[in-house]
Task: inverse folding
């Protein structure tokens, strides 16, 4: 496998689809939005973007199978050698309300983990990418790629924290209220941007120091996780293990230096199992 060639082609594809989304937003109409379930939206832009991505990825690596958000292609079999994990438009709620960020997310995985991750954040025209063992990088406005590294903040009191609030509010309300209340006033600040993949990339770039969310999906974390790990970050579930984060059930990501501290706060807040 020529991973460098594949990465170049995926980067170009992510940019192309991202620019399609930017153009569509200029004439976007809210009455073309559908609800998948309570407060979770999908639009024709999500679906058309996924079709474009899947069609091209089949050409780039014909033997690979797929895990995709909009299910426009048959999903992977258990014995797949290579799997594309695609979120065609992460941050749909932001997109339909003309807010930032939102992004195109493509990851490739084999049985040993992530091979590559590409995230194109459309509002800032930022292309984040990584390939296994080659670090994490950012290209912006055609400039030379810059290598990414997580922050060096090691004091929770100085940490900028991103929290994602799950759609199934009944199950997660107590935890979210507890953790927000416990952290408020005891960290630099708390934010919620509404795009898990963008937030993982911002963590990789050292812009934030901690991100966590639950009740999301594999396509919400795959590309960003690849980029973050290559930038020196750490990811786990809320118990500090690997059981739940790749599925999206529980995702806590940090610069590594703050991981134990935020896990302690999570256990105090009593996460939903």
Result:
């Amino acid at each position: 496998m020529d991973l460098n060639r594949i990465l170049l082609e995926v980067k170009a594809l992510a940019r192309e689809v991202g620019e399609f989304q930017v153009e569509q937003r200029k004439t976007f109409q809210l009455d073309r939005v559908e609800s998948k379930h309570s407060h979770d939206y999908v639009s024709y832009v999500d679906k058309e973007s996924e079709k474009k991505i899947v069609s091209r990825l089949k050409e780039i690596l014909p033997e690979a199978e797929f895990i995709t958000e909009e299910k426009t292609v048959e999903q992977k079999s258990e014995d797949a050698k290579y799997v594309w994990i695609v979120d065609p438009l992460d941050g749909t709620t932001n997109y339909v309300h003309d807010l930032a960020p939102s992004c195109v997310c493509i990851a490739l995985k084999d049985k040993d983990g992530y091979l590559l991750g590409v995230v194109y954040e459309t509002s800032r025209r930022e292309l984040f990418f990584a390939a296994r063992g080659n670090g994490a990088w950012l290209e912006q406005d055609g400039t030379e790629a810059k290598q990414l590294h997580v922050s060096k903040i090691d004091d929770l009191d100085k940490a900028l924290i991103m929290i994602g609030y799950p759609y199934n509010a009944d199950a997660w309300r107590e935890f979210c209220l507890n953790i927000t209340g416990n952290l408020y006033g005891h960290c630099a600040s708390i934010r919620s941007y509404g795009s898990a993949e963008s937030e993982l990339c911002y963590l990789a770039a050292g812009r934030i120091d901690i991100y966590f969310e639950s009740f999301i999906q594999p396509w919400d974390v795959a590309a960003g996780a690849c980029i973050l790990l290559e930038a020196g970050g750490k990811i786990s579930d809320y118990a500090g293990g690997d059981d739940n984060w790749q599925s999206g059930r529980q995702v806590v990501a940090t610069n590594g230096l703050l991981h134990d501290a935020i896990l302690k706060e999570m256990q105090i807040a009593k996460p939903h199992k």
Q: What stands out?
A: The chain has a mean pLDDT of 93. Helices lie at 3-25, 44-60, 92-96, 169-183, 196-204, 218-230, 259-269. DSSP finds seven helices and 14 strands in the chain.
